[in-house]
Amino acid sequence: MVKYVYDDNKKLVHVDELNKKQKEDDIDDEIFYDKLNDIEYMRRCISYTGAIDPTRTVGYARVSSKQYQNIENQLAIFRELGIEHIFSDRMSGFKYKGMERPAFRDMMKYIEMHPNINTLIIYELSRLGRNWADSIDTWSKLTTEKNINIISLTEPFTHNVDEDNKKILVSIFAWLNEQESKRTSLRTKAGQYRARQEKGIKIGRLPKVYFQREFVENLRERGWSWDEIAHHKDVRCHVSTIYRARKQWEIDDNLGTSHYKLYEKSYQRWKKNQLVKKGQI
CATH says 39-185 is which class? Predict the structure, then answer.
């Protein structure tokens, strides 16, 4: 395991000291990029105007991806409504059933331990899950066995339709959510296949050094070897990773395009952290 890396003057720096300093200077890249960037739009989508008793209500929020989705939008809306007990998961609602998600399990236990709870607030039905069978089973358990009234803030049929028709509509919308998830997956795979076959684009997470082309080329101009660049404190990767990045740079040059647009969020997160670490922000 690497113990030392190079600083800008090719002096060796112990990795532990560097990690400690970076940890002190680091920021939560999940927050700075798109925290609440669409909160106003989400507020406009809310159709529920009824009263909420915070002492008898819990909220459940979910996003599918830890890296590219921010759950703060849902949490902020729940807090604005005065909901005190909020449970949140960052897991796929299609791959994982309700009881396979930690926060959802905690919410069910909390409801069992507090008989006074009679309402569950969600932003939309798909937050319960995108698996049709599991969504129906979850809805039935909460409404029938636990006597919980489920309110979706953006779907009026959950709070202004009689129970019999509500079950039908919930079943239809749960099926639509599942189909939407399947179609999205198919479109993504088709796009990835086309990108690989037609343009030679590498699919998957790009290494950090890919976004450091200008920095790497600057070090090369100063006489740094590829191995020395790989061990620079701001690069810190295997030399083979740099070779892969160089190969992708060549593909970008030939295509006259860049992966920056395809991976803009990753690039913006990295760029922001670099500016913060340099004290420019």
Answer: alpha beta
